[in-house]
Amino acid sequence: MTGTDADDAPPLVDAAWLRTVGERVAEADGLLLCLDFDGTLAPIVDDPDDATLPRETRQRLRQLANAPDVTVAVVSGRELSDLRERVDLEDIHYAGNHGMELGDEARVPDAVAEHQPAVRSVVDRLRESLADVPGCRVEDKHLTATVHLRGVPDDRQAEVAAAVRDTAASVDGVHTSEGKAIVEVRPDVDLGKGWVVERLRDAHPDHVPLFVGDDVTDEDGFRAVSDRDGGVLVGSRPDTDATVRVPGPETVTLLLGWLVEAATDSFASTPVGSDDAPLTPK
Ligand SMILES: [Mg+2]
Hints:
The protein is α/β, with parallel strands linked by helices. The mean pLDDT is 90. A 7-stranded mixed sheet has the order 4-3-2-1-9-10-11, with helices on both faces. It folds into 2 domains: 179 residues, HAD superfamily/HAD-like (Rossmann fold, 3-Layer(aba) Sandwich), CATH 3.40.50.1000; 78 residues, Trehalose-6-phosphate phosphatase related protein, domain 2 (Alpha-Beta Plaits). The protein starts with a helix and ends in an 18-residue tail after the last helix. Magnesium ion (MG) binds next to loops.
């Protein structure tokens, strides 16, 4: 992270923002809390297979899922089955593959299904062409694919990313997007995390929406709640549509704890700690 990134990033969550959220939710009918998984709820680890929900975070998510008037959704780039297994909580809405796989409906939108052969073809080609690159993993998530660069030697990452872009460009109906040490292959379908958030907002029109996420694909989610200043960026980067940010997943846990207390108090008068350190560990 550079100093410039921090300068251009939105302000840290402060007491004023928490008070505003508390007041809005108290006036409204409830809270719609949408969260990304990796880098947001679960700390980033070298091997994505090792990513887990910290115990305290899980406990707070469960309390929120059980709270009246709180709707919780986890919206991830992971495949839906993988995401469900890792979160493993009931009364939560799950959306995988950046929202193309909806847990509630257990079906894939037709437009996405039509593009599956194209994604498959890119996966097959990349598995062949990148087979000799050490540490490179091509994850087939069926509707999308992720090429993981974290294990690839630093001096070869740019070359691998270029190979993914070139291969995807040679197949009709797919495009790539880049995140933290990953390149994603996605169908040319206008469905993303924002689409899921909009559907949830339609289903819960009186809930105050928040979207918490860390990566570029989360911008879609931030835009879907920007009319209510509900985007919370985890980490720091410029060019975001989030309204505020928190430093990392451990502060997301604190934010969830504050929301649990607020939900218990009907959001009316929840203390926010000191103005300098509104989210502090107990
Ligand atoms: Mg993430």
